[in-house]
Specification:
5 helices; single chain
């Protein structure tokens, strides 16, 4: 039971840290900041740690021959350790649900940012010349020009 409590505590701590980082990332995306590289590196490290925790949990479940930590906890005698494990499991599930919401929000904001960037690049690269440039423009009305030459 001590091993299960340790795994669940680790999961709760990592999920809590990840939620804080996702909140920071969401704020950066909302503010159109480009300082996301360090934050994404931190998020990647915590996700790697969560993967290690999940692998350890699965190894434990394989060793005790049960399908889930919830199932294992429910088979244990009622005592303080079982209560602690149940509370940690509940907290872990709640944090994972919050984390999914934060991830979905960050993905939506990133998609909006990508659409904006694509739109801006399309405007920049597809600017066309007009007949206002004289004979050169008259022979090449569809020639591309730089955005700095455009009258917007």
């Amino acid at each position: 039971m001590d091993e299960v409590i340790g795994l669940l505590r680790g999961r709760v701590v990592l999920c809590g840290q990840l939620i804080k980082l996702f909140n920071e990332w969401i704020d950066l995306l909302k503010n159109n900041s480009s300082d996301t590289i360090e934050l994404v590196t931190k998020i990647s490290a915590i996700i790697k740690d969560l993967s290690v925790n999940a692998a350890k949990s699965q190894a434990f479940l394989d060793r005790v021959k049960v399908n889930s930590l919830k199932e294992f906890i429910s088979t244990q005698d009622k005592d303080i350790k079982r209560d602690v494990a149940e509370r940690l499991l509940l907290q872990s599930e709640k944090l994972q649900s919050q984390l999914k919401e934060k991830k979905d929000t960050a993905e939506k904001l990133a998609a909006i940012g990508k659409k904006f960037a694509d739109f801006t690049l399309n405007i920049i690269t597809q600017t066309q010349t007009s007949n206002t440039y004289g004979s050169e423009a008259a022979t090449s009305a569809q020639a591309k020009k730089h955005i700095f030459e455009a009258n917007v």
